[in-house]
Amino acid sequence: MIPFNHKKIGILGGGQLGRMLLQKAIDFALEVYVLDPDNNAPCKNITPHFIKGDFKNFEDVYHFGKKLDLITIEIENVNVEALKKLQQEGKEVYPQPEIIEMIQDKGLQKIFYQTNGIPTADFFLVDNKEQIEKYTDYFPFFQKTRRGGYDGKGVKKLSNKNHISHAFDEPSVLERMVDVEKEISIIVARNQAGEIKTFPAVESIFNPQAHLVDYLICPAKISENTLTNAEQLSKKIAEQLNLVGTLAIEFFLSKDGKLYVNEMAPRVHNSGHHTIEACITSQFEQHWRAILNFPLGDTSLIRPAVMLNLLGSEGFEGNAHYVGIENTLKYSGVYPHIYGKKKVKPFRKMGHITITDKTLTAALQKAKKIKELIKVTAI
Fold it and tell me: Could you give all domains of the chain from N- to C-terminal order, each with its CATH number?
């Protein structure tokens, strides 16, 4: 067996999640290679082993992985066939390719929930918009394209038959609407030995224009019963998948108190950024622990936290300019994270700020002040 600090490890994707994984990998003296098509990707200057290539291309992924001992991901939109071949040839691939393949397809995700008794919103699968006509008795729906959608893209609300003409004409999930009280997320990790741990649940508040998370709070304002149910469902999913790695699970909490799994991401996630400062072990350290088969770390919350996403301001596109960062640093318990993206455009994720305090109320009050002090524009 190759000692962990002698393994050559690869990450498919060089975005901000990869950047934060690399920052933690330095503490373990890991030798990490990164594959990304953008020569200015956030990971570019963090590792000497940055390779320009397309993580969706079979040949690029296969030749990248051939030189490595262990491959992981920071984005799920990768070439699964190449990962399967690498796994067959003895390379460690975590999360496993079959998990990534299933999660890439929202239809297969829904079937997984249904098959394994995981509560999820009622749904129908269609191949084109013409087939939506068969389900007009069940309006309203959210139509979600089976592949490629993210951060609100690939989603349309279909309230009645008149909306069908504007629907996506491609394989989709028609998801019955849930009367949502709030959206929560839990990150769960599982190592090769089968040890499983969950992070404290977070509650997401969305930007209504961009359909992106504006900020999240931890701990989520939910009952103990709801929290226990969400944690149990998260562990059940990790076990059913035989997961090795990190998994973010997004839930709808309905107004009548029921939980429904919305979607999953087989990687570190935006809903876990606060764990760097707010938890004993961060999601990024936990991911390395999981795929290297180390004991999983303590996920306890140190202090309540709010995480603000730094999104590109409306009306600005060009070289990124961060206005007001220095003004935030006069506050205790405020931690900016700038992703190093060269270009800004409206609502692009450019960084985040974690705010901690003795109470969640105090953290939220501070977060409101911080949000007014900073914006991302262009020069």
Answer: 4-93 (3.40.50.20), 122-176 (3.30.1490.20), 180-378 (3.30.470.20)
